Amino acid sequence: MTSPTPNELPLLQIGFGRPGEAVSGTAGGCGDGCGCGGGAEDDFDLDPLECGLDPDLAALLADAGLDPVQVEDVAHMAIEEDLDHGVDVTTVATIPEDAVAVGDFTARQAGTVAGLRIAEAVLSVVCTEEFEVERHVEDGDRVTAGQKLLSVRTRTRDLLTAERSALNLLCRLSGIATATRAWADALQGTDAKVRDTRKTTPGLRALEKYAVRCGGGVNHRMSLSDAALIKDNHVIAAGGVAEAFRRVREEFPGVPIEVEVDRLDQIEPVLAEGADLILLDNFTPEETAEAVRLVAGRARLESSGRLTLDNARAYAATGVDYLAVGGLTHSSPILDIGLDLRDETRDGAGNGAEDGARGEDA
Predict the structure, then answer these.
(1) Is 306 a catalytic residue?
(2) Cα–Cα dist 185/144, whole Å
(3) For residues 303 and 93, what is the distance between their CA atoms, to the nearest angstrom?
(4) pTM summary value
(5) pLDDT tens column, 328-359
(6) Are both 206 and 319 inside the same structural domain?
(7) Is 81 a catalytic residue?
């Protein structure tokens, strides 16, 4: 028996199960009470692009420089992976369908938070009814161990089904923001900025680069099409740094060009071609200072390689503009955040929380 190809597998919507299967109303996802208006009676005619996030939440994401549709897609993929076309069997078996609870997303350690609105997006695609949120902090805030970040009141089943996917993203992004904040603090008082690379998790680049911004860093190019970065393999293939530069300039005249060099004698030819930015690969602080003197403001300079928190300030003191740190996105540990549950009835406490569908700040 042959396995179906990826193109033959159906795209399943949250809470609808496999094609042809009856689905319980406890499955989570877009149900009768969902603010998007979708429901099981729509079967598979529901257009995912029309089943969007609440407009106020989408506006908050857009204001943060994120694409709300992309965030919704990530939320759907996270939940689909966790449910695997089924239901949360533990939660459905142990929690009454009408149970309501408040969950407090709480920092277990000190750090810088990022991804709170993304966690809300995960809840949005799971919750079968409108949910209420109380926002205690904002992305980019420094938090202490034990501090509440976000409180959510909704059906207990939905809250527990969304818990791990929401925390996975929130902890990951907050870890990146926390690591970036350490670099930004180390560079405070200098003109240098820490910035990321394209060494990101596939599918999460925009979110991880957002977390870098929350931590006080700045972003390098978002994609291969944003700007040119001529590295050693391009130089070998083109027959030299200057030739590689000329080819990019001729083919894409309006694109910024950064050129990687690993020796001081390569800098002047690159400047002569008109490079916008020069990446100094594995230069020592002393070599970096000499490069800054040679360039004399004719191009921006970025240090890469050999960088640590211990020597970051020494590199910044040379006068470089950026410190490129790939580890921000590929090696940062998570920030430990947990969800603490408070049981409630539908008529119980929690009336002071704001309506999550409206997305108003508390």
Answers:
(1) no
(2) 17
(3) 55
(4) 0.81
(5) 999 999 999 999 998 665 444 444 344 433 33
(6) yes
(7) no
Q: Band the pLDDT of 29: cuts 50, 70, 90.
A: very low
The one catalytic residue in 88, 120, 260, 321 is: 260
Most confident of 15-19, 50-54, 76-80, 252-256: 76-80
Q: What is the mean pLDDT of residues 102-115?
A: 98
Among 158, 196, 281, 321, the one annotated catalytic: 281
Both structure tokens of 175:
């870890």
Q: How many domains does the chain have?
A: 2
Strands (E), 94-227: 100-107, 111-112, 132-135, 142-143, 148-155, 193-195
Task: Report d(CA 37, CA 98) in Å as an integer.
Answer: 20
SS3 state of residue 310: coil
State whether 325 and 341 are in the same domain: no
User: Residues 198, 302: one domain?
Assistant: yes
Dihedral sign of CA atoms 233, 239, 243, 247 in order: negative
Contact present, 273 and 267 (Cβ < 8 Å): no
The single residue of 164, 246, 247, 300 carrying the catalytic annotation is: 164
What's the CATH number where 125 sits?
3.90.1170.20
Instruction: Provide the 8-state DSSP code for 218.
Output: B
Do 191 and 139 lie in a common domain?
Answer: no
Is 209 tagged catalytic?
A: no
Q: Does 193 qualify as catalytic in the annotation? A: no
Q: Which of 193, 199, 247, 358 is catalytic?
A: 199
Q: Domain range spanning residue 249?
A: 181-330
Among the listed residues 193, 198, 231, 313, the single catalytic one is 231
Radius of gyration for the alpha carbons in the chain, expressed in angstroms and rounded? 24
User: Exposure of 169 by Cβ count < 10 A (0-12 exposed, 13-18 middle, 19+ buried)?
Assistant: buried
Active site residue 231: yes
Which residues make Cβ contacts (< 8 Å) with residue 23, sequence separation at least 6? 15, 16, 17, 40
User: Per-residue pLDDT tens for 264-305?
Assistant: 999 998 899 889 899 999 999 999 999 999 999 999 999 999
